[in-house]
Write a structure and sequence with these properties.
mainly alpha; 41 residues
């Protein structure tokens, strides 16, 4: 069997980076009128 630990750690690191990017983007004030409208209601 092949040792998959490197691939598993790489996948975990990739998931962490993507999750951090999504949280960062969602934390920014949005310039989209649709989002602004839904946030005001």
């Amino acid at each position: 069997m092949t040792d998959y630990s490197t691939a598993i750690f790489g996948l975990i690191a990739f998931t962490a980076v993507v999750s951090a990017a999504v949280v960062y983007i969602l934390a920014q004030p949005s310039d989209l009128p649709v989002v602004k409208k839904s946030l005001q209601n």
